[in-house]
Write a structure and sequence with these properties.
Blueprint lengths: L6 H7 L8 E5 L2 E8 L2 E5 L5 E3 L1 H9 L3 E3 L4
Antiparallel strand pairs: 1-2, 1-5, 2-3, 3-4
Length: 71
């Protein structure tokens, strides 16, 4: 039996929805990200997303933070 996927709850903890694009900063780098069933994906220079468990861990531990766009 497979356990329930918790990524929607993780996204909600950060005030985000699954698939919603947002920016996060860590180590002075700002990256475009989104939560998916597979975890946290980071937008690469080629425009494609790649799963990044390290950044997810950094968000959960407070080493990274989500930044809101200033319009």
């Amino acid at each position: 039996m497979m356990a329930e996927n918790k990524m929607a709850q993780v996204a909600a903890m950060f005030g985000k929805k699954m698939g919603e694009e947002f920016k996060a900063v860590i180590w002075d780098s700002v990256m475009e990200c989104r939560f998916t069933k597979g975890g946290l994906e980071i937008k690469q220079d080629n425009g494609l997303y790649r799963n990044n468990g390290n950044w997810l861990s950094c968000l959960l531990t407070g080493e990274a933070e989500i930044v809101e766009d200033e319009d």
